[in-house]
Amino acid sequence: MGGKVTCTLGEVKNRADLIIYWGGNPADCHPLHFSRYTLNAKGKHVPQGRKGRTMVLVDVRETPSVRFSDIFLQVRPGKDFEVVTTLRALLKNRPVDEARVAETGLTLEQLQNLVDRMKNARFGVLFFGMGLTMTRGKHMNSAAVLTLVAELNAFTKFVSMPMRGHGNVTGADVVMRWTTGFPFGVNLSRGYPRFNPGEFSTIDVLVRGDNDAALILGADPGATMPQPAIDHLARIPTIVLDPKLTHTSRLARVHITTATTGISAPGTAYRMDEIPLPLKPILKSPYPTDEEVIRRIYEKVKVKPAWSPAAYAKVPCA
Hints:
- The protein has helices at 9-15, 26-29, 33-36, 80-91, 98-102, 108-120, 130-133, 139-152, 169-180, 202-208, 221-224, 227-235, 247-251, 290-303, 309-313, and strands at residues 18-22, 54-59, 71-74, 123-128, 157-162, 186-187, 194-195, 214-217, 238-242, 254-257, 267-270, 276-279.
- By secondary structure, the protein is of the alpha/beta class.
- The strands form four sheets. Strands 3-2-1-4-5 form a five-stranded parallel beta sheet. The chain has a three-stranded parallel beta sheet with strand order 8-9-10.
- The longest helix is centred in the middle third of the chain and has 14 residues, at 139-152.
């Protein structure tokens, strides 16, 4: 089973009466999320706004978002997958071992109450963040949550949506999806796309040291990735295209300054609900756009003679 059941943020605003945040802290990371789209927003079918909605927060510790929630479920670190699979079992009326449930930091009563609320909601939405996707289980946690939400649609309307952290991360996923059929973790080394999260994902490739060069566009992995991945970027030839100086550009061999998209260059950004937003430039820039630089690199690579073992053998050793 694959894919996700999702919707737009406009539908969440107008319809959702049960909102679950799992592994995220929107009060700090997405401060306008509550007021514009979820908790406090008044919608067509939720005219009372906050009074017509229930918010559940699932996390390993108390965050500033706790004071906005109606129910807080504190999960033991690294036990998200077990919680999700228990919810799926309860949803299907399967027997559950209370002792195993206790290992997650929650009680069977708490999880049964959550399942009942999800089944009885008119329109439910589950937002999940990096506290779920980048902890023990990683992509398996994401797959379990997406499957749970899909199974809830046998009882009511339920959708899911990742809480994106950095600018236009959704755009990268959308482009990869309509060009290769997969959103991330794609390997094209055999001439066709292969999808395998955990093996071909960026962090995993860098931590293992599988790649011997890196081209980074409009991102700053040197500020967010694990230290082993950052150390590997510093060891290999790393090329960065970015309008500003970043942690990654400081460790790169080459930093090409480009025009800022949306200010000095046209482009398209995707909102976290995958709605495309066209960006029109308002200022001129002396720097080339990312697209122009990539096209120049492509043209140079295209005319370069193809590599062959015979040609390589003629190169004298140092």
